[in-house]
Model the fold of this input.
Amino acid sequence: MKNKIKVKVNLNLDSYSIMETEFEGMPARNEIISRVRIILTLYGLQETETNLDILGSYIIALKKKHGVPEMDILKHMYENKTDGVSLKMQAVIAAVYLSKFKK
Done:
């Protein structure tokens, strides 16, 4: 008879941990934090789990759709911020631009 071993798994990962494991190439946490903080500051957003989750999820979805690494999207977003363009739209612009012109 097999013994049943109870295993408790903590799925309460913070948003940066999720980005760290999900982003292409598993970039270093401090690199992700640096880029995300710049973007949040540019858009006047606080560094909350909700905002981090929204940004991280959106960037991951764009990577899956357009094939552009998440870190490249983030970099393009803060290097090319356009006044009057929402954070999500800026992310879309970055992903589309990089997928078409940076191969």
